[in-house]
Amino acid sequence: MKSKLTKLLALCFIASMLLTACTGGGETVNPSDKPTTSPQATEKPAETEDTLEEIDYWSRYDEPVTVRFAVLGAEDGFSWSDNIWTQAWKEQFNIETEIMWNTGTTEAYQTKFAMAMLTGDLPDYMYLTAGQFKQLYEAGHLADITEAYDKYIYPHLKQTVFEANEGMQDIAFIDGKRYGIATEGINNSYTRLIYIRKDYMEKVGAQVPKTTEELIELGKKFVDAGLAKYALPLIGKVTTEAYSDIRAIANGFGVYPGIWVDDGNGGMMYGSIDPKMEGVLNIYRDLYKQGYIDPTFPSAVGDNLTQQILNGEVGILTGEFWVATWPLPQLLDEEGKVVDWEIINVLPSENNTNHKYQAFGSPADTKFVAVRAGYEHPDAIMKLINHRHAMLDDPDMAITEFHSIKDENGNEIGNHMRCPIREYFNSPFTNQLTSPAVTEAIDTGNLDALVSPHDKLQYENVTNYLKAVEAGDIEGMNYGWAVYKLFYGEDSVFGLFHKNFTNNLYFWDLRDKTTENYERLWGTMQQYENTFYVNYISGSEDTTFAQFVQEWNDMGGELITYELNH
C-alpha cells in the first residue's frame, strides 16, 4: 500500500510540473474578472475581425445554467462540485456544476458509464472513446454542436489544439454535422527510453552503448560484476507495461509489438505477430535460461520492480518518460544524493538500418468531447472548455492558482487535477517545445525564448536545480533532479523527443478505425498474446511462435486484419 501511495504522490507531483500553465507572468487576473488577451493574442485574419467582435467568449448568463458531469476520480479532501474551478465558473459565467456521480477507478467509471449509455441518463458533458461516440450517435444521444463549436470555441484553442493539424476534426462530423470535438489520436511523441545507472557504467569501465546488442551485453556485465541482479527488467505484463516491457528491445530490432504496421503489400499487419518477433522472444528466453532475467517475472508486478530498483538490483531500465520522476529519484547513494542515470533513446540493432521510434496512439484512438442530446446550452460547455484551456495553457491568460498552489505546510496542491473537466486541452507537444526553450534561456540568457507559462515554470525549476548544485544543497539537488533530466539539454528526455520528432523518426500505429469484431475480441486476444509471450520466455510451454500466430489468427486475428484493411 505504501509503495502505491508513494507512486501516486510522485505522479501527481510530476503531473503538476508537466501539464502546462503554472506561472503566467505579468499581472494576475482575478477569476471573477473577464479574461483578457494581449494585442498579439487578438490578431486575426481581416475577414474574421467583425465576426469575432460580435462574440464574447467569456460572457455571463443572466440566469443560472447548470452543467452535469460524471467524473473519474475520488474526492480526496476536496469537492468536485465546489472548488476553484466551479467557483470561477459561477462567478465568470453564472454556470453551476452538478456531479451526477464519480468513481475512484477507471473500471468502476466505465461500468457506470456503460449503464448510463443503456438508460440514456447521461451527463451533459462527455468524454468518449470512438466506440462510445459511435454507439451514442446511433442511439440518438449526441447533440449537434456544429454551431456551438464554430461560434463559441475561442481562436487560441482552435488554432493551437483542436485545429492544429489540417483535417484532424473531420472524424467528428457525421453527414455534415459536428457531433463531437476530436482529441488525442496520434498527437504525441512519447516513446520508450533506456535508463542506465552511471555509477555502474563507471565501475565496469563501460561507455554508453550504441546498439541493442551492446546494451544487452552491458546489462549482463553489470550482473557478472555483482552490481545488478538482472540484466533487463521484466514483469508479468511483458507487452504492455510502460515500466519494463519488451517494446524497447523489440523496436531496436525493427519490431513494433502492440500496433499495426505496414505489411509490405499495401496493407496492415499486427506487429506482435511479425516473424522477427520470434527472434526478440528468443533473446529474452536465452537471458532467462542464463539467469539474467528475474525468475519470478511471470507473477511480478510494478511494485516488485520498484523494490528491485531501490535495492540496487537493476542497472538498466526500459520505460516511459515518467520513470525519471518516479521511482528513480527515490534511490539515493551513500552521500544522500539521487543516483544518476544516463537516459538515451531506444537503440538500433547492428543490422537495423531504418531505425524508428514507436510512439503511442493511432488515428483510431481518437477520443471525443460530446454533449448530451437535448441539453439546452451546448454553448455553456464550449465556454467551460475555453476556460479550462485559457487558465492552464494560454500564455496571455493563464493564472497560476488554477494549476497549483501551496498549502500551509508548503506542499503542492494540484488544482488542475480538481476540475470536473479532467481532460487537458493543450498542445500534445508542450513538453517537447519547452525543453529547447528552457535550454536556450539557460545557455544564452535569452529569456524571450520562454513563451508559455510552462516554459517559465520549467526554466525556474531547472535554474533552481543548477543553483542547488552550485551551492552543494543536496536537498535542492534531489528535489530538482527529475525536472533537470526532463527539460535541460538536447539529450534530456523531452530534448530527445523533440529532436526525434523534428527529424521524422517516429512510427505510429497505422490502424485508422475500429470494428465491432475488434471491440468484441481485442481484449481477449491481447491477454492471450501476453500469456504466450510469458510462457515462451519462461519455457513453461512448448507452443512455437508459428503455432501462436496460427492460434491468434483463428481467435479472430485473421478476421480483424481483413476488416481493418477493407
Tally of domains: 3
Relative strand content: 5-15%
Strand order, main sheet: write it out.
3-13-6
Radius of gyration equals 25 Å
Which class best fits the helix and strand makeup?
A: alpha+beta
Could you describe the 3D structure shown?
With 566 residues, the protein is α+β, with helices and mostly antiparallel strands. Helix content is 42%, strand content 11%. The protein folds into three domains: 2-188 and 363-417, Periplasmic binding protein-like II (D-Maltodextrin-Binding Protein, domain 2, 3-Layer(aba) Sandwich), CATH 3.40.190; 193-358 and 515-564, 3-Layer(aba) Sandwich (D-Maltodextrin-Binding Protein, domain 2); 430-507, no CATH class. It is built from 20 helices and 16 strands. A hairpin with a 2-residue loop joins strand 4 (173-174) and strand 5. The protein is globular and about 75 Å long. The two termini are 47 Å apart.
Short précis:
It is built from 20 helices and 16 strands.
Task: Write the topology of this structure.
Blueprint: H1 2-18, H2 49-53, E1 65-72, H3 84-93, E2 95-103, H4 106-119, E3 125-128, H5 130-138, H6 146-152, H7 155-162, E4 173-174, E5 177-178, E6 181-184, E7 193-197, H8 198-204, H9 212-224, H10 247-252, E8 260-262, E9 268-270, H11 276-289, H12 302-310, E10 316-319, E11 341-345, E12 357-358, E13 366-371, H13 378-393, H14 400-403, E14 405-406, E15 412-413, H15 430-444, H16 453-471, H17 474-487, H18 493-502, E16 506-507, H19 516-538, H20 545-564
Parallel strand pairs: 1-2, 12-16
Antiparallel strand pairs: 3-13, 4-5, 6-13, 7-10, 7-11, 8-9, 14-15
Helix pairs in contact: 6-13, 11-19, 15-16, 15-18, 16-17, 19-20
